[in-house]
Amino acid sequence: MSTAILGDDGLARCPWGLSAPDYVAYHDDEWGRPVRDDQGIYERLCLEAFQSGLSWLTILRKREGFRAAFAGFDPEKVAAFGPEDVERLMGDAAIVRNRAKIEAAIANARAALDLPGGLAATAWRYADGSAPVPKTTEDVPPFTDGSKALSKELKRHGFRFVGPTTAYALMQACGLVNDHLESCHWRAIASQPG
């Protein structure tokens, strides 16, 4: 069973948060912190979808390339992308070149613009502040009833690549659930209102 481990700075982190320098920065500065704007949620949803089947480290290292390729993840701009943009993106080595995922990111931008109340409001309806506090990595589920429900709602509105596991990863990344381990230094920080 993996519990939080001490980094060189003497602070306890979730074990994955120490496996690479990129992970340390992501774990400490972003993961689990509340994201409450549509563009921020849309960016993370896209990145989680692109990550499907790949290492999250690959996505983190290509994040700036994704931001440049997808107009800073502005849903209005991405929703206007057409077939020529898909071809441009398929030739962009700075991102993951997967046609189905690229087309999903564009479709998801359009779907996000059509959501009553917006994407952030929709996602935050599924926040779970009463989720059990994980003591070990084995206590962190791959998905929950809440992520299944969020996935179902997003799919109902035309979103793609948003299965329950991807929806749960989005919830974790955006602070809808706090899955920092009990002994992780950043658990209390991530719990602060954003």
Largest sheet: 2 strands, antiparallel
Oligomeric category: single chain
Give helix % range. Answer: 40-55%
For the record, give the distance between the C-alpha atoms at the N and C termini, rounded to a whole number: 31 Å
Instruction: Round the mean pLDDT to the nearest integer and report it.
Output: 94
Uncertain regions: pLDDT < 50 for 5+ in a row?
Answer: none
Q: Order of helices and strands, N to C? A: EEHHHHHHHHHH
Number of helices: 10
Rg value: 17 Å
What would you say about this model in short?
With 194 residues, this protein is mostly helical.
Overview of this structure, please?
A two-stranded antiparallel ribbon has the order 1-2. About 35% of the residues are buried. The model has no long low-confidence stretch (mean pLDDT about 95). Helix 2 crosses helix 3, helix 2 packs antiparallel against helix 6 and helix 8 packs across helix 9. About 50% of the residues lie in helices and about 0% in strands. The chain is mainly α. Strand 1 and strand 2 form a beta hairpin. The two termini are about 30 Å apart.
